[in-house]
Each structure stands twice: as C-alpha cells, then as structure tokens.
Amino acid sequence: MRYLPLSDQDRADMLARIGIGSIDDLFADIPEAARLTAPMDLPRRKSELEVERHLSRLAAQNVPASSVPFFIGGGAYKHHVPATVDHLIQRSEFLTSYTPYQPEITQGTLQALFEFQTQIANLTAMDVANASMYDGSTAAAEAVLMAHRVTKRNKAVISGGLHPHYRAVIRTMSELADDTFDILPADPTGAEDILSRIDNETSCVVVQSPSFFGQLIDLKPIAEKAHECGVLLIAVFTEVVSLGLIEPAGTQGADIVVGEGQSLGNPLTFGGPYVGLFATRQKYIRQMPGRLCGETVDADGKRGFVLTLSTREQHIRREKATSNICTNAGLCQLAFTIHMTLLGQTGFEQLAMANHAAAVKLAGMLEGIDGVELLNETFFNEFTLRLKGKDAEAIVDTLADKGIMAGVPVKRIDPVSKDVEDLLVVAATEINTDEDRAAYAAALKEVLA
Amino acid sequence: MRYLPLSDQDRADMLARIGIGSIDDLFADIPEAARLTAPMDLPRRKSELEVERHLSRLAAQNVPASSVPFFIGGGAYKHHVPATVDHLIQRSEFLTSYTPYQPEITQGTLQALFEFQTQIANLTAMDVANASMYDGSTAAAEAVLMAHRVTKRNKAVISGGLHPHYRAVIRTMSELADDTFDILPADPTGAEDILSRIDNETSCVVVQSPSFFGQLIDLKPIAEKAHECGVLLIAVFTEVVSLGLIEPAGTQGADIVVGEGQSLGNPLTFGGPYVGLFATRQKYIRQMPGRLCGETVDADGKRGFVLTLSTREQHIRREKATSNICTNAGLCQLAFTIHMTLLGQTGFEQLAMANHAAAVKLAGMLEGIDGVELLNETFFNEFTLRLKGKDAEAIVDTLADKGIMAGVPVKRIDPVSKDVEDLLVVAATEINTDEDRAAYAAALKEVLA
Amino acid sequence: IEEPLIFETGRNDVTGVDIDVPLDFKPRLGSHRREAPIDLPGLSEPEAMRHYVRLSQKNYAIDMGLYPLGSCTMKHNPRLNEKMARLPGFADVHPLQPLSTVKGAVELIAQLGRWLLVTTGMASVAMSPKAGAHGELCGMMAIKAALKARGESRSKVLVPESAHGTNPATAALLGYKVVTIPAREDGTVDPASVRELLDDQVAAIMLTNPNTCGLFERDIKEIADAVHEAGAYFYCDGANFNAIVGKAKPGELGVDAMHINLHKTFSTPHGGGGPGAGPVVLSDKLAPFAPVPYVRFEGETAEFIETRAEAKEHGDTPFGRMTAFHGQMGMFIRALSFMLSHGCDGLKQASEDAVLNANYIRVGLADLMSLPFGNRPNMHEVLFDDSFLKDTGVTTLDFAKAMIDEGYHPMTMYFPLVVHGALLIEPTESESLASLDLFIATLRDLVMSAKKGETERFTGAPYHSPRRRLDETAAARKPILKWVRPEPASVEAAE
Amino acid sequence: IEEPLIFETGRNDVTGVDIDVPLDFKPRLGSHRREAPIDLPGLSEPEAMRHYVRLSQKNYAIDMGLYPLGSCTMKHNPRLNEKMARLPGFADVHPLQPLSTVKGAVELIAQLGRWLLVTTGMASVAMSPKAGAHGELCGMMAIKAALKARGESRSKVLVPESAHGTNPATAALLGYKVVTIPAREDGTVDPASVRELLDDQVAAIMLTNPNTCGLFERDIKEIADAVHEAGAYFYCDGANFNAIVGKAKPGELGVDAMHINLHKTFSTPHGGGGPGAGPVVLSDKLAPFAPVPYVRFEGETAEFIETRAEAKEHGDTPFGRMTAFHGQMGMFIRALSFMLSHGCDGLKQASEDAVLNANYIRVGLADLMSLPFGNRPNMHEVLFDDSFLKDTGVTTLDFAKAMIDEGYHPMTMYFPLVVHGALLIEPTESESLASLDLFIATLRDLVMSAKKGETERFTGAPYHSPRRRLDETAAARKPILKWVRPEPASVEAAE
C-alpha cells in the first residue's frame, strides 16, 4: 500500500523486537466477541488512477458554478480567487502543520493569525477578533451563547432578516442550553419593528446587514435601544465583501460582529469548509469563544507570537470553557488572509464596487420584466425578487434546466415562513458578464411569459 | 498592475534619487527614430479572471487524452502521474530557483540531480548520465555530434526504425555541421540489414529499440560490428517505461544511450517541455554535452554536490564547448526523478508490465479484425498495424470524430518514406481500460467494414 | 532575515489584484456607504508571495518529519486527496444549487456515509458537524433529544478523568453537570466505578476508546451494559478510532453515538488548526434524532433529507440543524479518497501499523523513560510520565523543547491529566522503521543527557528554532491581539 | 538534519505507487526481457514527500528573496501561469493528435506568435526551439540556409568579447570560425571595429542588445547597416529583451534574427535549470527558412505548417526541424498568460521598472563600489568590477559568498569577461522599493566591512547556509557522478 512505509519484513522484525508473536497480541484487550476476523464488507485498495476516476465520475455529475451564468448567493458566494492563494495554502509547511501549540516552530502560522485578527478587527471596526470559527452560522450561535454568559440573561431577539439557516443553528445550539427566543417573521423589505422587542430580559438582538434578503439595515437605532436595556447587539453578515463599501457594524455600535468569510480565498465546495469571523469589544475578550493569537517576546527579546488566553478554552478549562470549539478553520482563515493581503484596502474596495455594480446592472435588467418585483430599496450584491404568485422554486428548477443558476428560492431554505413561495434571492458578483446577465434576463422573461 | 510593486510615488522618488527628470532619460541610448512613443498595437492589461477565461476558452477547444479512449504514442505517452509529483515540483524552492551555480544554497536541486543521474545510469546500465537535455530528439542529435567528436569521423548510419522526427532533427543539427548520413528506409518489421552499412568511415550507428514501429531490436550484433569498425553505437528509446521489462542498451554494448523521459512525471502538453536522457561510458565523459552534477565535500568536510566538469560547457569554453546547451529541462528532470523514486524498482517493473499487458490485450483484439495486419513479432507497449490498402490518416481522423484516438498514422510524421500510407502505430498504456479497448476494436471494425 | 508584519510593509494604496470597476452605474447603497478608510495594507503579488513563503518557512510540518503529537494523529496527507477536492465538480459547486445539478455531490456524501457505517457498525450517520467537538455536541444533543422524547430530563454526564477537554466542555454547554470517573490504576475505567455513579439522573457516559492513555478499555461491554441498564446512553469519543479501524466496530461494543474526526482518522491536512470534520454515527435508538441535513439509508438506497418536513415523512424527528449547509464537503472528498485508496485491507493494515509503531517506540524507550501503567502493550500511542526526569532539574516542558533542537516536533505534554507530567507519543502508521529508529535513538540520547545533568541543553531550549522560548505569561497578562499603528514619530525625530 | 540519498534509505522492494498488474496475458517480448535487477530504490509516498520537501528546503528561490543574477532575469513567476499550463485542455493533449482535436492549442501558438511579432516588429517567428541557446542555433541555421540559398558559404561569425558563451558555442557548432570584436572603452561595440572585421567571409554578427554590460548598443543601426552592406546578417541575442519591451522594436533596429528567452522575459519559473523556450523572430529575408513546424501569418489568418511539403506550397524552404514536436507548449501558455496579464501598458511599465530599479541600485552603490564604465545610466542591469576590493584580501567570489550569509543569492560573477572581476546585478521589475533599499544597505555594509579588513567574514563565507563553501576542484579532478553501492562490510565488522 503506497502510503504505508513498513514492509512485511519490517513488521516481522518489529514484532520480534517487541517480543510478541503476532500483531493481534497487541489487540488483545478488545473483547473477543467484538474482534473482527473477516475483512470488512468494503472494496479492497485502489490505485491512484482508479480513485481519481471514481471521484471524477462523481464530480462530473455536478454543474460547476463557473460553467454557467451563476446568481446563487444566500450565504455562499462565487468569487474569483487569485491562483497565488491556493498555491500558498498548499505549501507543506502551512498545510501539514498542527495547531501552533509549539510557538517556537510555528511562527508562520501564528504571525499569519495575528495579521488575520488585525484585518478582521479593522474590517469590522471592532477591538479584537478571534482566530476563526467553523463558519458564519456557528459563529452566530456562539455569539448568542456568549451574550448569555455576558448578560446572564437567556432571551435572544432574532431579526426576520437573518439567514434562515443561521436562525436554525442558533436555535438548535441554544435551545438545548435552555435559551428562549423571540424570532421575528421573515422580513424581505427591512420594515420590521425590532426595537419594540428589546427589553430588560433580552440577552441579545441578532441583526443581519446586508440582510438575507439583501437589504442594508441601519444598526445605529438598534444599538442605541439595546444598550439602553443592557442588551448586546450581535451584527451578522454573510457576504464579507460588502464591508468594502458599506459602513461597518463596529462604528454603528455592535457589541459582537460575526460573519461568513468564505467569499475571500475560499471556494464554494458545496457548503464547506468555510471560515467564521468573530469580533467583539475589548471588554469581552475573556468571554470570547475560540482561539486567540497574541504578541509577545522570546528569550532573546525578539518579537514573536503565541496562542494566548487559553484559560478560556476547553483543553484547559474543560467544563468551564467558553465554548467546546477545538479544531477551527485554520487553512480557510489562511486563504482568507492571503486574499485580503493581495487585495489591500484599494483592491478590496474595488472588488466591493465591482460586485455592487454587477448587482445594480442585473437588478436593472430584471426589475423591468413583467411579473417581477424588486423588493429592495437598497442592496449590496444581493436582492430579492417577488415573482408575483409563481412558485420560485419551480422557476429556479426550470431555469437550471436551461443552464442558468437563478438564485435561492426562499421557501427552500425557510420552509416555515409564510408568504415566501414567490420570493427569489438573487446574487451578483464580479464573475458575471454582460452575457450572463442578458441570458438570465431573457430566460426569466421567457419562463414568466 | 498586480505584478509590479512600485507605486507612482515610488517611481517619482526613485527618479529624483537618481537625479533625472523622466524615465525616458534612461533609454536615451536607443536611436531616436527607433524609440516607441505610441503604445504597441496590443490589448491593455487584463485581470486574472479575464486571462483565465481567455485561456480556458482556448483549452476547451482541445480534446484531453483522459477524456477519450487514447492510443497515441509515437514518442510521447499518456501515463498516470501521481499527484505527489506535481505538488513537489511546484514548491517555490524548486520551482523558482535558478541553475545551481551557488551550490551552498542549492543543495536541494543538486542532490536531486545526483540521484537522477544515478537512476538513469542504473536504468540504462551505463556508467554515467548527464543532468538532462531538452528532449529525446535533441539528445539523439547531440549524441551524433558527440560521436563525430570522439571518432573524428562524420558519417552517421541511421536505422529505418528510428522515429522520423528524431531522424529529421539529427539531420538538421548535423547536416549544417557538415556531417553526412546513411539513412535506411523505414523499417516497420525490424528486418533491415544495418550491419552491412557500418564501415571504417562511420562515426556512429543510431538504432532505436523499441523501434518507432514498436519492434524490439537485438543490439548486440550491431554493437559488435560497430566496435570492430571503431564506430559508436547510439541506442535510442522514446518510451522509458520499456526499460522496466526489456534488456537495457548498456548491457548490449551501446556506447551512448539517449531517450525521451516524458513518460515519467511529465504531462503530454502538446509536445513540450519534455526531458532528454543521455548516458554514456566513463571514458567519454569529457566529450559529453550538457550539465553534470558531482559529489564533493564542503569546508567542514560534509558531503555536498556541485555542478562539475563545466570545462566542457559553453559558459566556460565558449567556442570550444561540447554543445551550446545552457538552459536544460531541470524541472521536468525533477518530476522524472520524483516519479521514479516513488516507483522504485518494484513499481517501475509493475508499471512496465501493466503497459505491456495493455498492449498485448489490445493487439490481440485488433489483429483479429478483417483488413488489419499486425506487423510486430515482438513489442513492448506500441505496435504497428497495416490497414491493408487504406489511408491510415483518414481512418485516424474518422475515428477521432467518433471520439477515439487511434494512433499515429506513419505518413503524417514521415511524409518522405514509401509504402507507409496504410501503416498505423498504436500505443497502449496502463491508463487504457477494457472498455477503451473494446470501443477501439468495435470502431475500427466498423470503419474498415 | 526577520519577516515584518504586512501592516509594516504594506501600503493602503498597493494592490496585488487587478479588478475592473465599471463606472456606468448608479449605486443603490442608500445612506449606508462606508466613510472612514478601512486601513488594510496591500502587497503586490510578488511581495505577498515572499511574505507567506517566508512565514511558512518558520513552521514545522508532517511533510518535514515525525510529528509525534499524541491524540492528534499527525499522519501522511496524500496529495491525491488535495487534487480530488479541487476538481471543479466539487470545489466549484454551491450548496444551494438545485439538487438536479449536484447529484454527484450528494452521492459522494452517501458513499462516504456508507463507508463510515460499515467501518463502525452503526445504524445511521449525521454528516454535518464541522469538527470533532462539533460532532460531540451533535451526538450529545441527539442523546438529550432522545431523552426528551422519552419525557425525561436527566442532569448529569459521566466523564473519565483522562477525557479530552472537549468532553466536559460539550456536556457543560448542554447544561449537564459533569461527574468525573476516576481512573483505576492501570489507566482504564473500572465498571464498578461507573456503576457506583450511575443513577436515573445520568444522561450519558462520554468515553474515549481507545482511551487517551493509549489503552483499549477492555471492560467496555460491561460498562455499556451498565449504562444502558440505567437508561443512559453511551457516547464514545472517536478521536482514537484510527487505532481500531478494521479490528473492531464500535457498534458491536454498545456505543450509541460516536463522532469521527475525519481529519485524523482519514487524513485531512491539519492546516495549522483546521478545518476538520466530525460526522457522528448513531445507533438505532438515536438515529431518528439526527439533525438536518442528513442522508437516510434504506437498504441499497440513500436519500438526502434537507428539511424537518421531509424527515417527518420518514418518521424521523431531527433535533435541529448544526450548520448552515451540508457540512465539510471538502473533508468528505478527502476522506473518501483516503478510504477508497486504502480499501478494507489497507485500512486494517494502517491500524495495525499505527499500533505496531507505537509499541515499537514503547519497547525502545521502556528502559530509560517511565511508563505509568507498566511495560504492557498499548494501542496507537504510548504514554510516559515524567518520573524519569526526577531530580534532573529538567521539566517535561524543557525536555519537549530540547526535542525541537534535534529536529523534532515535541509530543503531547501534560495530557492526559490522569498522570503527572504526561508525555504522549503517537507515531501513526506513516513512519518507516528507519524513522522510528532515529527517533528512539534521539530520545535515548536526550534522556541520557538529562540524567547526566546537562541541564542547559534543556532549560534554555530551543536554541536552533526560528524563535527561542516564547513568553506565554506576558502574552496572557496584557494581551496584544492586533497590530496597532505606532504613534507617528515627532517631527524632530523624523528629521 | 542531514538528508540521505534515496539510495541509502530506499529499498528495491518498496514502492510509493500502487499498480494493478494483470496476469491474464502472454508476454510478447521475445528474447528481449531484462534479466539483471535495475537497482532502483523506492520510497513509500510519505517518505518520498519528506525527502523532497527537505531537499527543497536547502534551496534559495525567488519566492524567498531578491535573486540579483545579472543576465538571468530572476523575476516573479505568477502562479496564474502555472494554473493555466495545467488546464487539461493544454497539459493533457498529445502532440500527434489529429489537428481537429487540438484547434485551441494551435490557436494559442498563433496568438503568442502574434504578440511576439508585434513586440519585436519582426516578420515571422519560429516557435519550436526549446531554449535560448537552441533558438540561437535556429537563428544561425536560418542565416546559414539563407546564405546557401544565395549560393554562398561564408566562414566567419563576429562576436563581441562581452557576448554570452552560448554565442561562440553556437557559431562553432555550425562550423563557423569565431572572430572576437573588442569592446570599446565604454563597454559597447564600436561600428568602426565591426567595419574593420567585415568581409565577404563574414556570415553574421551576433550581438546582444542591451549588451551584457547592461548598456544599450547606441550605434546599433550603424552596425546593422554595415553588416547588411557586407552581405552578412545581424543576429541579435535577445536575452536582454526584457529591458526594452514596449520601448523599442528590434525589427526597427536592423535585426535579422533574434531569439527570445520566454522564460526570462515572460516569466516561466527557472525550475533549477529549465525548461525554457527560445522562439526566434525573423526578418523578411530569413522568414522562408524557418524550420518546421511553424505558424505562417498572412494578414489576419494564421496557418500551422507541419511539413516541408506544406511549406513549399507557400514558397517557403524550411531548413529542417529543431525538435520532435511543436516546441515548449508549456512555456507558450505561461508566456501568453503573462503577456495578456500585462497588456501593452504593463509590458512597457515592466521594462521601465526593471531599468529604474537597476539604476536605483547603481546610484545607491556608486560611491562605494566601482563602475567600470563610469557612473552613467544603465539598462536593466548594472555592472561593477572588483577594483573596489583591491588590497582588501577579499575576492569577488568571497564577496559573493558573504552575501549568502546576509540572506541573498549572489549576483552574477566573473561575467561578462570584458571587465575584471565582474559583478553583474539585475534586480528586475519585481522588487519593491523597500526591498531595493534593504539590498543596497546590505551591500554597503559588506563593502565597508571588506574595506575595514574584516576579511574573515568573507574568506570563510558562507557560514549560515545548508553547506559551507564546496570544493569544486576536488569534484572536477576525480568526478563522482553517480552513487555507487559501498562494498558490503565484512562479516566480522557486521557482527
């Protein structure tokens, strides 16, 4: 077997050195009845070529985003990632290194983490960011749990503009921890009255901007009300590129900012692995979940970096930890930070502008179609259409058959909300061409006719 | 521009420091009439995404070998290359390093070269091998030039079994150096009488085995006759995998062994870059072309490697060099040696056997078809079919339209030889499946019916 | 050469990406436009390349040498898997595409699920958890949901003292009180201690097997039976499943739920901290509670269930959703590639080699280092304690840091907590005999050196790494968690 | 840690590749089967990974830092190009596939050809030469063939003393007598000297421009005219074309043939020695002699000519064939990717930046190091000689080796031969201002150190590299060019 360096002769020599007759002597503690003697009911080893063929056949049954006019968002976005990013994260020294518990020989990982934390803090206009979570949805859930710890209250107010899956994950995670919820109805137009829901029992209020429906939300009044009541404002975003153009939650008064970072550096890969971003105020750092990298000096007085404040973490604190997270999104975080470094402020703002332009153009073409209503007044690169009275999911399927990926039918991921059957969330990014947009508009017109 | 680190401000600062007013002052030596003032008639810079799209469109107009039943050889072969190979050669430290003229900081490249030279010497059963040539055809031409230098004679006898393109390259290179040739007619069956062409005027005799037509040639009698006449035997191979199974030219008495190494580690890439292999006897090393890596010690007495015998090379010897070769096939050679190390003797022999098996099976299926004659008595992974009286090139084109890559029609690459219009050289490798072979046999039967 | 931070060399007006920004449109951002600059320095592509290449060169990695981190399973990561994960048909597929356009992706998840069920002998699998700890949470939530469905609300979870820190953290997150089971003298759990602690308030036991001392819990069936009798569930921490693949099936040992660290057992690169993947296999009893989305196996067919509504049609009652989409597809691809490559024969051989290698190290060091539970066979990792360093003036930490100077990554230290000054070594199946011999020889030399009193070699170590020993206390006392632009120097100083 | 040779650690029975060998067939090898073992050690995949990763870590590379090798043009290698070259539609295409199945490949060659013609202002291009030196050979063969077609057989080629070694080697290979043109005091070629040497036996002049002293041959037109008047051809060594892309076109300077090192000017990674690519652009006069295969441009259309017969139909008379197939397709892809990325504006900017950077280094060091031709503007590289080291006891070589300890690859030394102890520095356009400043500061420190008499820092250098200075003389005296298995130790010794 190509991955196993021991030869049969090696194995025999080693058994002799250990002083036993058979490898099974080492497995003697397994209850006899449970020992497997027959081979498992699975195929035998395959050559690299065979494996490649097997998996390529499966891959060929999927339609890659690059191969069609593509307008699906809803929490994961198709962007162009520079080739340099994937080259660098594949370097053995990054790829096959462990969590940097031995800082003397993992300064590479650690310095990149420190730079990442700074980028996220600056991006969100918050004081501190952690070294990444699994993804945006779990980061949001961790934020709610953190608010619970900070406020010692257990009622979360959830905006109707929050991604339905994020809502579900928050609920799942904290329901079992005995939190309660005040969940507002789906809010495609950003018109909900969330202020009235915030009271002195509330631990946090969770608001997404741009919302799941693409609306840009003014967080300032919410922050004001929240702070009056001793409530934490958790601001969520699923499209990090939007931060290149819109006002960050940090300057609007958010206490915790969480979001999905997949857009930078990371491919779609059917939903994972992604990278959760998590930033907060200085005063809450000891309540933060996840890993943190900090600056220090070595025995020679040289600057260096280490994982720090691990007294919050499960491997030290065990049942008193701030979260059970252990493995995180290291490599995805590295891809993110490399992409961000390549962009810099200038490139990042240009990328954001190119995305917004693509969405404005697309919206302009689609809102003119009979039977289509654009619900957004403002948006970044994603907006919601009402396909008056039609089943959005059926229309998406029809368009997919025509080779166009039209967007996310709200009903598919939010089966419980009312009056959303004809809603379609459409995303545009810098990868869309004029031809893509024209093809979409023409096809939609045809299907709705 | 993403590849240029200087900003406009940097440029201005630097001009000031240099003490000139404009960048054009630095180009003042260009005759004024020849200075370009207008932009060149070419498109302006493109984003990475645009370049990727442009080139992907071109790539999409080609049919990749992996996507169809594939039986084309004739000097380049489709094999499976382990993913590890491409990963390793893409490491920055290998990929973006220069020729190892500073051995203290290029031991990685040098040790890999030393190992490569040893692998090639062992593989061919010769004393020494160089650090690679451009490809098999230019290596063959260099061998003829070397024989000229060694023997001080200038007539080369060229077997009719030599790859027609190799024949052309040898001729082109040495004709202009005033060599003369005795070229035997195309020899699909290995029946030529080459011994009678060798005489005391001859510098070398060039024989390929397996021949272009796939025949295995007994080199021993040729070596004997050559050595009687003071002539060098140059043995050529285009499929290095054959050495896993057939007797190496070294033990048969060859003086120079050259060949194409593309089969290991290197993709087809429409003909290049490939890697030329070159081995010879100890006594001729100072007449060898190309780079050599040798073992030595450093100031601390530790083993190390350096480029050596550069007194044969153009950068030192100038007009007295053994060849003008400078840049060689470094990275392709590295891919070769990594693939070979992964294989080892065991894997290499298995690979050779798998190739031979594929060819034997295919030949068995094709030789039964009406109108098809198999010309080979022996072969490794490539053989020649006579499609009695048919135009092989037309048949290959027809089969290509049916999605089958049937082989090399001899006439296409040997337009000058007689009676080859109906000859087809067919190669089989480990990548062919039973389905591939069945599809080929069925389609050929249909086309010939 | 020291590598500065990007904030020190980068400039806000430099970019390594060319983007065409259309100008022919009217923004629709309302009043939400960002005003203040972000302060994100950029690097041109050549500068960025060098920055990260140089950073990487300060790291140790499996591809460079033995990485004997016990419990972390640092094994070879085949590049075939990386190549497969990058096929456009996988990497460039959106989680919310119409299902008709992702049939192969769904099929891949189903195929991997089947491999996991066969190797573990369990009934069902929840694929979506994003890492081992997330899987633990998922498994424990299934247990909590099952208890709730039974109308019970138990309050305690039993966890042995040798457990990974994630176990008590997970239990606590779900509101359970953690009750510690003491280890018996040989490092394993005594069924009698378990029985003593069991009552009708115990929801579950969380047991790692093989345990973190590198020992197989030989009384596991007895423990499982006792737990089940008490109406509780048996959660197995599958972090060490890699020792027994093909040798035993957790499903036949009484396990109700177990997460599998795909990245450990089936070799996703650790990437400096992740990502991993933690699918959870479930027994019949827990299967109906698996979170959405999941794959439902019914004989030969596999159905992809996306919503609770669909689940209900099959009589399932998912407890919720663990993550936004379908889980760690990238890791699924790598794991299936790894499993297909090995096959049933190769997976078993890999377990055997991992165990053989660990025992070979034990035997090679038993006379010089101290084995807390005696010189007896272990599984895939071998646990030493620090008593061999007694009176040498060298601590476990010093010893580990001295290994760095010899070209090795240290082993896991101070874990498990059940022994004093633990040194936990896991070589994995990826090491050759020559590599093990060199490692043993190096450790022997270090031990001799410590015993000879060459303390300086240890207390000042490492000497030959990119950084000397780092001051972790200072880092925690006054945390500096991001770069802050220094105050501009005064005009005089600048001149 | 020292890395042994694969022959020392590998074993002939170990393999890192799994291959299924069918048994159900009867070999048809006749009597040609190999009998003796090959003696090729194998490594399992994890062992091979480590071996080559560790070897790589002993290398310096552009991706790690400034690589100021004059004349070699070590610039940034965009990874986009690597990605493009690996598209299956390019990498997985056989050179002998029916042309209907490789239309995009042929089109790519044609597009790149057009870019080369526009940037050089020439009439035609031969794409197949496999490297710069191979291109030289091709160009000179075209000249020889053109002379032959005129019924002439001239015997001499003029080459300036500053020329690359490949120039005289190429001329000699074709049977020409090499006549050296002395340099004038300012490092350039004097048209008067050329005129003096020209006669009806001169086939061609081979001139590098910008020349290897980093200077543009300002009398190039006059030289070209003189050469043409004498019935000879002007071969231009295009190794330094990267300095003038977008600033001047060789075709307008009287050049008849020029090879282009795609790997230098348009950035293929150097790969530790290659591969490169050396397409040759030709003037109208030489175009008909281009070797097969080639692309024939006729207005907007481009036709791919594979054989002499096809060429004849267009009235061309190819002199032969340079290589088995179509040339270095892999490099063509990278070069076109590089050119498309830059565009006409970026290519010009790159030339300007390369020249600007080199002049910035000159100015930064002019007061401390010695400029053989005075402190005047240079092109993309700047040439120093060793007179600044006079009486320091430090040689050019020592100085270069001391740079290694400072983290830099040395510049080109002892070339061009036209000055004593040459030090030729080419920073390329890929360096940032900060990088140049650090480099200048480091060199200044080294020069001061040498002048202060700190000779040990130089004569023993390098101290901090994977190897100290290597004994090249010993290597050449008794060459060891392959590993030979040591004699087995005697039985007593083994026991």
From TrEMBL, chains A, B:
UniProt keyword Oxidoreductase present: yes
Gene Ontology BP terms: glycine decarboxylation via glycine cleavage system; nucleoside metabolic process
Top-level taxon: Bacteria
Keywords: Oxidoreductase
InterPro entries in UniProt: GcvPA, GDC-P_N, GDC_P, PyrdxlP-dep_Trfase, PyrdxlP-dep_Trfase_major, PyrdxlP-dep_Trfase_small
Domain Glycine cleavage system P-protein N-terminal: 1-436
Family to which the UniProt record says this protein belongs: Belongs to the GcvP family. N-terminal subunit subfamily.
Entry protein name: Probable glycine dehydrogenase (decarboxylating) subunit 1
Provenance organism: Breoghania corrubedonensis
